[in-house]
DNA sequence: CCAACCGGGGTCTGCCATAGTA
DNA sequence: TACTATGGCAGACCCCGGTTGG
């Protein structure tokens, strides 16, 4: 055991000679420290089990790298008591892939356990990521964003199995790219966990009488890259809540889940319930019936996650401009536009004397270009 | 020709709890 | 028994334009 560690550290140390072009920000002095620590370890390893103080050489190495040691210690204190770590190797590895010093320091500060990974492991993992990404810089930007996603798992085999599993669901390389970009954690899930989610979705499709449950699974994952990093419990609870609150038919529920509703599946259930309650109450107070409220949410699932305050403001603002609540219920998509955008559009329309009761509200549901073209015409007509 | 319908695109972690492991 | 690996949680939109049917 000790011999293996010795070999590993020697290897890491000797590795340095293969990378002579060091950046200025890594003074050469610190490359020796692992080796020195190794010597200390060799002398002391008999008593090593008794007490594991934090390793002074490690602290010094990290400080040279610019790591925020306080932050790192707070996050993963165990790493600081390890005898053998690979901070040089990890820094060198990241640098060789194009990361700058600041990024490296930030990555280790935020996920100290990274320094326990071997060079070989990192290179192997990198190749797996590169089977999905075209360039190193894409990967670096994700590591920068979320160090944990890259470093949390030591199981490259599992990562590989996840890739094949996702392909086996009928997802394309473009889909995998998207998932690894937006929810990289999904690939660090155990294969079993991902299978559970796929099974849950498939069973759901079957229970809804979907003719092609496999396609149903594929569609939902494609629509919502985050779903694989949610718990099956959450997804199940949310589907149950849809059923209870909206009383949809099977086909309505399928349509909801395969469409915008897929994104809503991963909301925290409490948040979703709270939003549903608040917005329903507002709609009731405006004279809507239960059926209308249910239809509103089916037609416009984003209402589940829109912040109540914002959505409520938008509704008020539209009503104040002479738009009828029924018009709004028929065209909930206009709520997707920001309040400021809607306000500006309404102001412009008022200027040309546009009458919502006469001409409807769909003019608000158009892209900037189309809206401006329409407005230009209205201006001319005047 | 134009309004209405509809799907798509970008994008998203950092922390805590705990079972498992050496 | 300390530490690692992994599961799970809270947080919370906006916009564009292709296609279609009248």
Keywords:
382 residues, mainly alpha, 23 helices, 64% helix, 0% strand, disordered N terminus, DNA-binding, transcription regulation, mitochondrion, repeat
What about the largest sheet? none
**C-alpha Rg (nearest Å):** 28 Å
Mean pLDDT: 83
Strand percentage lies at: under 5%
Query: In percent, how helical is the residue content?
Result: 55-70%
Low-confidence stretches: 1-51
Secondary structure class reads mainly alpha
- Total beta strands: 0
Q: What is the ordering of alpha helices and beta strands?
A: HHHHHHHHHHHHHHHHHHHHHHH
What would you note in describing this structure?
The chain has a domain at 2-152. It has helices spanning 2-15, 33-44, 56-65, 69-75, 87-96, 101-110, 119-130, 136-145, 147-151, 156-168, 173-182, 191-207, 213-223, 232-246, 250-258, 261-264, 269-285, 290-299, 308-320, 325-330, 339-351, 356-359, 368-381. The chain starts with a helix and ends with a helix. Helix 1 runs antiparallel to helix 2 (33-44), helix 5 crosses helix 6 and helix 12 packs across helix 13. The model is unreliable at 1-51 (pLDDT under 50). The chain has 382 residues and is mostly helical. The structure holds a DNA duplex (22 and 22 nucleotides).
């Amino acid at each position: 055991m000790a011999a293996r560690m010795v070999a590993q550290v020697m290897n890491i140390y000797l590795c340095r000679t293969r990378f002579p072009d060091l950046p200025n920000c890594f003074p050469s002095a610190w490359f020796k420290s692992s080796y020195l620590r190794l010597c200390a370890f060799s002398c002391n390893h008999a008593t090593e089990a008794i007490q594991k103080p934090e390793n002074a050489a490690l602290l010094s190495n990290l400080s040279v790298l610019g790591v925020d040691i306080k932050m790192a210690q707070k996050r993963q204190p165990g790493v600081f008591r390890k005898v053998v770590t690979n901070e040089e190797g990890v820094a060198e590895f990241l640098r060789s892939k194009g990361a700058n010093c600041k990024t490296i320091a930030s990555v280790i500060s935020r996920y100290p356990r990274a320094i326990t990974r071997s060079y070989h492991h990192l290179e192997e993992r990198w190749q797996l990521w590169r089977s999905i990404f075209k360039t190193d810089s894409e990967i670096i930007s994700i590591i920068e964003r979320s160090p944990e996603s890259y470093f949390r798992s030591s199981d490259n085999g599992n990562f590989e199995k996840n890739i094949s599993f996702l392909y086996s669901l009928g997802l394309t390389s473009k889909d995998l790219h998207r998932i690894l970009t937006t929810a990289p954690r999904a690939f660090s899930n155990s294969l079993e966990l991902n299978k559970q989610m796929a099974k849950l979705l498939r069973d759901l499709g079957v229970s809804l009488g979907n003719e092609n449950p496999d396609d149903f699974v594929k569609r939902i994952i494609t629509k919502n890259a985050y779903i694989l990093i949610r718990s099956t419990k959450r997804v199940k609870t949310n589907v149950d809540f849809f059923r209870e609150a909206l009383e949809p038919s099977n086909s309505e529920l399928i349509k909801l889940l395969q469409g915008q509703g897929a994104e809503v599946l991963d909301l925290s259930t409490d948040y979703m319930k709270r939003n549903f309650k608040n917005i329903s109450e507002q709609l009731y107070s405006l004279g809507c019936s239960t059926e209308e409220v249910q239809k509103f949410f089916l037609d416009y699932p984003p209402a589940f996650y829109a912040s109540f305050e914002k959505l409520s403001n938008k509704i008020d603002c539209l009503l104040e401009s002479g738009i009828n609540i029924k018009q709004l219920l028929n065209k909930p998509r206009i709520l997707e536009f920001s309040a400021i955008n809607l306000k500006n559009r309404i102001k412009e329309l008022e200027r040309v004397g546009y009458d919502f009761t006469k001409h409807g509200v769909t003019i608000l549901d158009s892209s900037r270009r189309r809206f401006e073209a329409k407005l230009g015409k209205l201006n001319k007509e005047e």
